[in-house]
Amino acid sequence: MFRTYVPRAPLSAFVERFWLCTDAQVARSERILPSGTIELVLNLAEDAVRIDDRRFSGAAFSGTYARSFVIDATQHAAMLGVHFRPGGAFPFLGVPARELTDAHADLSFLWGPIGRELRERLCDAATVPERFGILETALLARLGRTPHAAALEGLAAFRRLRGGASIREVARATGLSQRRFIDVFRDAVGLTPKLFCRVLRFQHARQLTGGDWGEIAFAARYADQAHLIRDFREFASMTPAEYARRMSVDCMNNHVPL
């Protein structure tokens, strides 16, 4: 079973969706690709989240990644998550997003005992709507200061043009120097504007797989096919052809079966 829920305002400005998968465990590893976002994951079946041969508590934040990482897919017996919008996790972390770049952190490390208590309440909940409601209430209570307005302007410009906007021009439009803009953007998103735009282009190309790679490179605003292949190797640890081959196996979005 895979269920999703879009929270009401004001959370909807920061969270794209809640999700819950149950009885989806598979005896394999899966590679999760960078998406420019932060995820909160809670394992309701056991008090552990296993990532890249490391073990975290059953509730953990997955920071903004500039590379892929590998998980154990047997964890999908009962997994609940919050998929934040780019920059959307900032009000809930208590630290700049750059401190979680290419890293994971136990929820209790950032939230204290409340993090452990939240997972326990979610484990005890009897229904899917009840679990989503508990999570929504907990996030509303943690809603803190929002990202710098310039970071939000930059995000909107980069996403509108799928990573094709000029960083210098976007910084100028916000009224900040380019250096200052890069700093506030990294605090909010966890990646530099340049790296975030590369991830956006990669994600666009990934969603177009199945056609001619030269045409896909052009549609995703790559200079040429060689740049597209380079980003697949860096972000997915495989070539575009290998990615397309592996994705013939049923898998969650942005996961690649290994």
Structure summary:
The chain is α+β, with helices and mostly antiparallel strands and 258 residues long. The protein has helices at 90-93, 107-111, 113-124, 128-142, 149-160, 167-174, 178-189, 193-207, 213-219, 225-236, 240-246, and strands spanning 2-5, 15-22, 29-32, 39-43, 49-51, 54-56, 59-62, 69-72, 78-84, 104-106, 255-257.
Describe the protein.
This protein is 42% helix and 19% strand. With 258 residues, it is α+β, with helices and mostly antiparallel strands. The strands form 3 sheets. Strands 1-2-9-4-7-10 form a 6-stranded antiparallel beta sheet. It has a 3-stranded antiparallel beta sheet with strand order 8-3-11, with no helix packed on it. The chain is globular and about 50 Å long.
Look at the structure and give the mean pLDDT. Answer: 93
Give the strand order, joined by hyphens, for the main sheet.
1-2-9-4-7-10
User: What amount of the residues lies in strands?
Assistant: 15-25%
N-to-C CA distance: 22 Å
Q: What value does the Rg take, in angstroms? A: 18 Å
Tell me about the largest β-sheet.
Answer: 6 strands, antiparallel
Give the class from helix and strand content and strand pairing.
alpha+beta
What is the N-to-C succession of helices and strands?
Answer: EEEEEEEEEHEHHHHHHHHHHE
Helix content: 40-55%
How many DSSP E strands? 11
- What form results from the Cα inertia axes? globular
Number of helices: 11
Q: Segments where pLDDT lies below 50 for 5+ residues? A: none
